[in-house]
């Protein structure tokens, strides 16, 4: 039973951001049409092995969102998202949703998160048609086979990914 009304102008956008894609950038931009500040929270430990270290992922997010400086902040977090939200006295999480598959998973996550922290609410931000199939996983797969990913990722990230792959090969 909800005991009080939540309202927030600051929302948290958590993710692995391995790496941040243009889809993620769009979610931040859309969220800023509704909320006054977005905290991008980069997960230190994710359930997947990351290509980029936490420092690299933070730097990529920083470069990608440079022009939104006064409306965003960037943090990292370890452990449970629900605990991080409680520790920082924040109560609204935003997550981008591309399709019905995403929605199924995101709904599960949001229900679990609100069981773990009943002050926590999740707001889903739908993506646009031309960002529907962009994901960090696909971007990495294309890059691994030498494909051009420049239109899917923020400026300069394609070069970073290429370097990361060539370092792996050597
Ligand atoms: O970009 P992603 O990989 O979809 O982001 C997923 C993320 C990092 C938001 C999610 O895995 C997460 O919240 N991880 C922290 C651990 C946690 O709280 N898990 C939920 C309960 S199992």
TrEMBL record:
<dbReference type="InterPro" id="IPR004821">
    <property type="entry name" value="Cyt_trans-like"/>
</dbReference>
<feature type="binding site">
    <location>
        <begin position="16"/>
        <end position="17"/>
    </location>
    <ligand>
        <name>ATP</name>
    </ligand>
</feature>
<dbReference type="InterPro" id="IPR001980">
    <property type="entry name" value="PPAT"/>
</dbReference>
<keyword id="KW-0067">ATP-binding</keyword>
<feature type="binding site">
    <location>
        <begin position="131"/>
        <end position="137"/>
    </location>
    <ligand>
        <name>ATP</name>
    </ligand>
</feature>
<keyword id="KW-0963">Cytoplasm</keyword>
<dbReference type="Pfam" id="PF01467">
    <property type="entry name" value="CTP_transf_like"/>
</dbReference>
<feature type="binding site">
    <location>
        <position position="24"/>
    </location>
    <ligand>
        <name>ATP</name>
    </ligand>
</feature>
<dbReference type="InterPro" id="IPR014729">
    <property type="entry name" value="Rossmann-like_a/b/a_fold"/>
</dbReference>
<feature type="domain" description="Cytidyltransferase-like">
    <location>
        <begin position="12"/>
        <end position="141"/>
    </location>
</feature>
<comment type="subunit">
    <text>Homohexamer.</text>
</comment>
<feature type="binding site">
    <location>
        <position position="95"/>
    </location>
    <ligand>
        <name>substrate</name>
    </ligand>
</feature>
<feature type="site" description="Transition state stabilizer">
    <location>
        <position position="24"/>
    </location>
</feature>
<feature type="binding site">
    <location>
        <position position="106"/>
    </location>
    <ligand>
        <name>ATP</name>
    </ligand>
</feature>
<keyword id="KW-0460">Magnesium</keyword>
<keyword id="KW-0808">Transferase</keyword>
<keyword id="KW-0548">Nucleotidyltransferase</keyword>
<feature type="binding site">
    <location>
        <begin position="96"/>
        <end position="98"/>
    </location>
    <ligand>
        <name>ATP</name>
    </ligand>
</feature>
<comment type="function">
    <text>Reversibly transfers an adenylyl group from ATP to 4'-phosphopantetheine, yielding dephospho-CoA (dPCoA) and pyrophosphate.</text>
</comment>
<feature type="binding site">
    <location>
        <position position="16"/>
    </location>
    <ligand>
        <name>substrate</name>
    </ligand>
</feature>
<keyword id="KW-0173">Coenzyme A biosynthesis</keyword>
<protein>
    <recommendedName>
        <fullName>Phosphopantetheine adenylyltransferase</fullName>
        <ecNumber>2.7.7.3</ecNumber>
    </recommendedName>
</protein>
<dbReference type="GO" id="GO:0004595">
    <property type="term" value="F:pantetheine-phosphate adenylyltransferase activity"/>
</dbReference>
<feature type="binding site">
    <location>
        <position position="48"/>
    </location>
    <ligand>
        <name>substrate</name>
    </ligand>
</feature>
<feature type="binding site">
    <location>
        <position position="81"/>
    </location>
    <ligand>
        <name>substrate</name>
    </ligand>
</feature>
<keyword id="KW-0547">Nucleotide-binding</keyword>
<comment type="pathway">
    <text>Cofactor biosynthesis; coenzyme A biosynthesis; CoA from (R)-pantothenate: step 4/5.</text>
</comment>
<comment type="similarity">
    <text>Belongs to the bacterial CoaD family.</text>
</comment>
